[in-house]
Amino acid sequence: MIPPIALTCGEPAGVGLEISEKAWSELSGSVPFFLIADPRHLVGSVPHVLIGHPNEVASAMAGGLPVLPHSFATQNHFGTAAAANAQGVIDVIKKAVKLVQSGQASAVCTNPIHKKALKDGAGFAFPGHTEFLADLAGVERVVMLLACDQLRVVPVTIHIALSEVPKQLTPELLRETLRITSAGLQRDFGIANPRIAVAGLNPHAGEGGAMGCEELDMINGVIAQMQVEGLDLRGPLPADTMFHARARASYDVAVCMYHDQALIPIKTLDFDRGVNVTLGLPFVRTSPDHGTAFDISGRGIAEPTSLIEALKLAHKMATARAQN
Predict the structure, then answer these.
(1) Annotation: binding site for a divalent metal cation
(2) pLDDT, tens digit, for every residue of 1-60?
(3) How far apart are CA 201 and CA 218, in angstroms?
(4) Which of 97, 107, 154, 302 meets the CB 3.0–4.6 Å disulfide criterion with 314?
(5) 150-269: CATH class
(6) Which residues are annotated binding-site positions?
(7) Is the overall model pTM greater than 0.85, yes or no?
(8) What residues does a divalent metal cation bind to (predicted)?
(9) What homologous superfamily is domain 1-141+281-324 in, according to CATH?
(10) Is the bond leading into 47 cis (omega within 30 degrees of zero)?
């Protein structure tokens, strides 16, 4: 039996605590996990059990949400991030990583953070969770994968302006993204030879240079090189014909050139169940695919489905790693 999943509280003023409690109600009999949080901040919609070590989770899970206490600087007010609590949010993430690195947790699942609150309150120097986790793990490059039952997608470039995409879309970046994606699907999803569909950058994948030359000048060459290395790649493909049901059946993951090219199809197919996965880390990390939702936090109406799916997927991925 693998160790439990370490679930971080995220920004306590957001919906993370509420959906964590709802996730325990759904998963208490199937997916072992514990929440790292300040008990004073809990919503209290379900019972909770304070633990001193992750090895207590199995016995605690039936009685309530297992909580590994972490003291924050001040009380919590839903909808308004407290600057004094920013360091606590960061320290909880560090604690979760240490627990998984030491083998006391099988995976890290992260509730949403509020990056501006962390920057203003604690000088957080990273664009987001993914970059911070890579730094903690000592990894130079990681890949963001979004997954639901119907589709997996990877954007090569992420949170940059569309006008910047052609400048940042280098052969090295595309090669590394393809390598990490293929290795991640083998190790974490148990797919022996992942079938990877690669989108073109331009409409109709450039249509032979009539609508852009990035496919001819760079993407074609990278695909050919990586095929020689043994990766199962097809493309570059027109993005507008890649995501209908028959096309999706022909590949295991779609690698897209920019953020919206990847995220629009998956959020259209299954908005509530999308899970954010970080490939390339030495440990499993998943996250719900939404933000802190300050506007509804503390009202009891936050939808927990994405977190539930993130915990379930983390458990599957950790089990796959343990079997490799």
Answers:
(1) 159, 204, 259
(2) 899 999 999 999 999 999 999 999 999 889 999 999 999 999 888 999 999 999 999 999
(3) 11
(4) 107
(5) alpha beta
(6) 129-130, 159, 204, 259, 267, 276, 285
(7) yes
(8) 159, 204, 259
(9) Isopropylmalate Dehydrogenase (3.40.718.10)
(10) no
